[in-house]
Structure to design on (264 residues):
C-alpha cells in the first residue's frame, strides 16, 4: 500500500497530516528517508519509522461522542483542559477527533484512528451534511432566513455556502430554536452566520452528521459506530434524512454584523 495510507493506519493523524510528515522528510522505510507519496510499503515486512521510532498499523476503531460544553475537541491542550479523548476509555488506539466543535458547543463528534475516515468527513468535496440545533436570542424574519439559506458574508472575505434553516421550537418568552444544516465546516460557522444578520447564538448542539444522528446518547456518553454507520459515513451517498443505525453499547467515563455580498 502507499506510504500515506500505511501511515494513516498507524494512527498518526489525517491523510493530510501524514502526507506532510512524508514531504517533510520525517519518515524512513528500512533506514532510508522517503519523500515520495506513491512509495509502496510492504506491510508486515518493511520497517517504517517516524523520527527514528518504529510505527505500526493498527486496527481501525470508530466512536461517536455527545460532547458536553466546556470540553475541547482535541487530543491534548497546552493548559491541560479536558478533551474529547479524555472521555473515551481507549488508550491503546491513539484516537483523534474528526473535525471539531467549539468549546462552548455540544453534541455529536466522531473519534477514530482512521485517517481516511477523517478525510471523508472533513474534506469539502464530499459534502457531508451536518445539522445543528441553534437557540437564538430572537426570532429571525423570513427575509433573514432566506439570506442564511442563500449564503451570507461571515467575515475574513468568506461567504457561507447555501444552507437549510428551519424553525423547530418557538414559545413566547423562550429562545427560538432553529435546525441548521450545512455542508461545510468553517470555524464557528453557524455562530458567524447568525451574527451576519445581527442575531446571536445562545446555545448550539450538533445533532447529526453524514446521516448518523446523536439520538440516544446523553452528554458525555459515547459508543462505537456500527459497521453500517461506518459504511454510510465512508460512502459518497448524501442521504436526505439523518437517521442513525441504533446499535452499540453506550458508555460513560467517570462579532460584528457583516454586509458583504455573496461572491459568484
Amino acid at each position: 500500500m502507499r506510504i500515506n495510507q500505511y501511515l494513516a493506519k498507524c494512527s498518526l493523524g489525517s491523510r493530510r497530516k501524514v502526507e506532510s510528515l512524508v514531504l517533510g522528510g520525517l519518515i524512513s522505510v528500512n533506514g532510508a528517508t522517503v519523500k515520495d507519496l506513491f512509495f509502496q510499503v510492504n506491510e508486515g515486512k518493511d520497517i517504517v519509522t517516524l523520527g527514528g521510532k518504529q510505527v505500526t498499523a493498527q486496527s481501525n476503531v470508530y466512536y461517536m461522542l455527545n460532547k458536553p460544553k466546556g470540553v475541547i475537541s482535541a487530543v491534548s491542550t497546552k493548559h491541560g483542559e479536558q478533551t474529547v479523548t479524555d472521555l473515551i476509555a481507549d488508550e491503546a488506539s491513539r484516537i483523534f477527533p474528526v473535525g471539531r466543535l467549539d468549546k462552548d458547543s455540544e453534541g455529536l463528534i466522531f473519534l477514530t484512528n482512521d485517517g481516511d475516515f477523517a478525510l471523508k468527513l472533513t474534506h469539502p468535496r464530499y459534502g457531508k451534511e451536518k445539522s445543528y440545533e441553534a437557540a437564538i436570542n430572537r426570532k429571525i424574519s423570513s427575509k433573514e432566513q432566506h439570506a442564511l439559506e442563500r449564503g451570507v458574508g461571515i467575515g475574513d472575505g468568506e461567504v457561507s455556502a447555501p444552507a437549510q434553516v428551519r424553525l423547530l421550537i418557538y414559545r413566547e418568552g423562550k429562545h427560538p430554536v432553529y435546525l441548521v444544516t450545512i455542508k461545510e465546516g468553517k470555524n464557528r460557522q453557524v455562530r458567524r452566520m447568525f451574527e451576519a444578520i445581527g442575531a446571536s447564538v445562545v446555545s448550539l448542539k450538533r445533532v447529526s452528521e453524514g446521516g448518523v444522528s446523536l439520538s440516544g446518547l446523553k452528554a458525555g456518553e459515547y459508543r462505537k459506530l456500527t459497521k453500517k454507520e461506518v459504511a454510510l459515513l465512508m460512502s459518497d451517498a448524501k442521504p436526505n434524512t439523518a437517521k442513525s443505525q441504533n446499535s452499540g453499547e453506550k458508555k460513560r467515563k467517570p462579532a460584528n454584523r457583516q454586509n458583504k455580498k455573496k461572491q459568484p
In short: Residues 239-249, 253-264 have pLDDT under 50 and may be disordered. The two ends are 41 Å apart (CA to CA).
